[in-house]
Amino acid sequence: MTAAPMQAQLIAKVRTPLSMFDVCTAFSFAYTDLEGMLPRAECLAALVGQSGHETAGWRSLYCYAFGNAKATKSHSGHYFQMRCWEIENGKKVWYDPPHHQTNFQGFLDAPSGAKALFGLLRRRYPQAWAAAQRGDIITMCDRLKFERAPMMYFTGDLGYYIRGTKLYAQQAAALIVDSPRLVQPMTGEEWDAFDPKTRPL
């Protein structure tokens, strides 16, 4: 099957790896630009965690696609293509370009990619976005999978997705403790409750 006609411009698949600190910083600025305020610490950790799971700790981050969101025919801007799989009828099915399943939203810089991911989550997955505000990773992942079923954000195993997101969120939380300017001010007690060294996510 050939790729469906796209409004967006096809760009080359380019690896754009970032450090966790760079991702936390980009996400903090993007969130502030979108919501008009700094994110809460638990929110930033949850959002960074989800992106980390999607991109294998940003080692497999391409074209600043922080959430590996698919590009539909109505997507404007840029997109790239890469081999991927989906779970269909309980089986893993691989797709190769130019199949439309291999179309992913692409961006030219980190701020644009972060803002687009948050805009997508807030617009299409409001329940998941609301859970992210609370730092509720289990509900966030559950809603990403089932809120718009059968149009799922991801088709893989929910438990695996939650575990991966929690892993990266806990790492992000440790970084955020050392970079408090990225999030809303908190009291000493709130920081103690958030610090992963004393409270696992």
Structural write-up:
This protein has 201 residues and is mainly alpha-helical. It has one domain. The protein has helices at residues 20-35, 41-54, 110-124, 126-134, 137-146, 158-177, 188-194; strands at 9-10, 78-81, 84-88, 91-95, 103-106. Helix 1 crosses helix 3 (110-124). The longest helix has 20 residues, at 158-177. It starts with 8 loop residues before the first strand and ends in a 7-residue tail after the last helix. The mean pLDDT is 94.
Fold topology:
Elements: E1 9-10, H1 20-35, H2 41-54, E2 78-81, E3 84-88, E4 91-95, E5 103-106, H3 110-124, H4 126-134, H5 137-146, H6 158-177, H7 188-194
Helix pairs in contact: 1-2, 1-3, 2-4, 2-6, 3-4, 4-5, 5-6
Write a concise keyword list for the protein shown above.
201 residues, 3-stranded mixed β-sheet, 45% helix
Task: Put the structure in a nutshell.
With 201 residues, the protein is mainly α. The chain has one domain (9-194). It has 7 helices and 5 strands; from the N terminus they run E-H-H-E-E-E-E-H-H-H-H-H.
Mean pLDDT: 94
Shape: globular
Which sequence of strands runs across the widest sheet?
1-2-5
Domain module count: 1
What gyration radius follows from the Cα positions, in whole Å? 17 Å
- Structural class, please? mainly alpha
How many beta-strand segments? 5
- Kindly, what is the distance between the CA atoms of the first and last residues, rounded to a whole number of angstroms? 43 Å
Low-confidence stretches: none
Major sheet description:
3 strands, mixed
What is the N-to-C succession of helices and strands? EHHEEEEHHHHH
Helix content percent band? 40-55%
In terms of DSSP E residues, the strand content is 5-15%
The helix tally amounts to: 7
